[in-house]
What we know:
- Chain A is of the alpha/beta class.
- The first copy, chain A, is 45% helix and 17% strand.
- Chain A has two domains: 148 residues, 3-Layer(aba) Sandwich (Rossmann fold); 112 residues, Rossmann fold (3-Layer(aba) Sandwich).
- At the A-B interface, helix 7 and helix 8 of A face helix 7 and helix 8 of B.
Amino acid sequence: MAAVAPEHAIGVFDSGVGGLTVLKALLRELPGENFIYLGDTARLPYGTKSPTTVVRYALAAAEALMALRLKCLVIACNTASAVALAQVRARVVSVPVIGVIEPGAEAACASSSSGHIAVIGTEGTIRGGAYQEAIRRRRPQAQVAAAAAPLFVALAEEDLCEGPIAAAVAHHYLDPLLAGAPRTDTLVLGCTHFPMLRRAIEQAVGPGLAIVDSAQTTAGAVRCTLAQAGILAPAGMPHGRLRLLATDAPQRFAQIGARFLERRIAAEDVEAIDL
Amino acid sequence: MAAVAPEHAIGVFDSGVGGLTVLKALLRELPGENFIYLGDTARLPYGTKSPTTVVRYALAAAEALMALRLKCLVIACNTASAVALAQVRARVVSVPVIGVIEPGAEAACASSSSGHIAVIGTEGTIRGGAYQEAIRRRRPQAQVAAAAAPLFVALAEEDLCEGPIAAAVAHHYLDPLLAGAPRTDTLVLGCTHFPMLRRAIEQAVGPGLAIVDSAQTTAGAVRCTLAQAGILAPAGMPHGRLRLLATDAPQRFAQIGARFLERRIAAEDVEAIDL
């Protein structure tokens, strides 16, 4: 096992820009750390692809990042976390690998009083049932209703996060889901794109429901893991460095990613990388 | 150059299921031919990716199909036709290669009286300007307005082709496009997914506009090309064979593809192929 040091970077990968909502939480939680974010934009989306293919893509992304001396690897993509976490952990044995499903399930179980939880995500995430399992592992009596909501991804990428189209799509997915699970008190945004549509989703479900995503709890899990291993960046360090890598179309990544990360990204700040 | 015979198949490729709208027109136009359709579902969509990446994917798909003894190769994807036709033709020299942009431009120029034509397509197709050029090459005085309409792809794949969401999205794209080009009399559906939304698009633009897509004219171009080369399947032949190949998720391909092709596709009829 290679020596891992506090100054090594935290690697974060996603199929594209969605994971930047997780990176945003990580930057807030751990401002002294160095981060390297990889968006696999040449092969996005993962959400409609088969588990076999997503595993292959996730392993390639993980290996590319591991070549850059990491101290921790975050799979900031629900689909890849749902279907490829075990395989990535088996391949990447020298540093901790953290997905977003377990932290998302943790957030849901902490939020729910009734034990009735709804989850929305991509086709791949929902079909695999990873959220449903992770919630029931923590809370065996939980009732979990789940639905794929793939159009939210396209709406978020196209900056149609509010307005009549976003509202109509939110009702299209959420009305039948909640009608079938009326005691639901917590809705999990099980895709890193979905926090971009949080307001439209909140308006569609009304005030009685707590909405949770895994970004903040994932950032907390990363802090915990690094602290336990004794490899947190020392307190009082200046802000860490951030490297952004994309497998295709750095300009599009910069343009759409800036909205997700809520900070300016210049196209020349995004390094092209081939997997 | 390998010998090409009438019984060889016509190869058709697309990033996924969209090209099945072109295959449907080809099956109607040339029922005696054998067809092999390849959907590159492991790497779809092409429409948001860079020209370099689309060229790489298109060459891989073309080479995989060429290994199966073709007499003609059809690029049934507007994005790949727009950015990779020349490169595929340079690589595949033994048989004719036909894209969908030129036939679509042909259909538009034949339809338009005013010479004011609007085109909608994916980001990659519109950004590259291939339709705009192909139309102006035929009709130098033509005024071409163009807009990317990427959400239509997601709507078509999710079978949300009619109803309030499709209507709202159609108005979202088409109202500003046509407000800026009021003399438009012809709208080109420059993406093979868009014919699935034809009714919603027609309702959004009203009765004064002709809507054309490249499926039928592409099928006509293929017939012409094969006839000139003397390699049409002999008249009076029984129906040809159809092979369907997909690089990922054959079941999803079968399920969504059946709507695009308007015929039943069983998951076991779709062969998985690795590129």
